[in-house]
Design brief:
Elements (H helix, E strand, L loop, with lengths): L9 H13 L16 H18 L2 E6 L2 E6 L1 H11 L3 H6 L4 E9 L5 E9 L7 H4 L5
Antiparallel strand pairs: 1-2, 3-4
Amino acid sequence: MDLWGGTLNYEGITVLSDVEASAYAGTGKRFCRRLLCAPACLQRVAKVLEKEADSICPFNQIETQYGEGIEFDYARVMRLVIDAFGLKQTAMERKINISGSIDAAGVTKNICHTSTGLKMTDIQGREPLKRHGGSL
């Protein structure tokens, strides 16, 4: 991995797969029951996952005067966060607390990033993973 820059992307998975397969090279043993998925398999799963995620929380890639960006449907994201924390009914009955944040940093001399986020701060908000039995 050091030779490939320490990245874990599809190329990195290919490198790990080659390392895994090299243990069987020259042994005459058949290489099956892989520990790692092939990059093509991961790409197929990623495509299905992205399609499902797009139906839940779509976004658009945009160009700004500062460069490229991603824009979400903020009302839809807010409803998703409220529902994930089990506060849908509560939000219809009273105001709930959600904090927002924004941060920016220089990555290189010519590249910077800006990030925004939401944090549920309402005292009645439940942990989403516990609410759904450990997984969403």
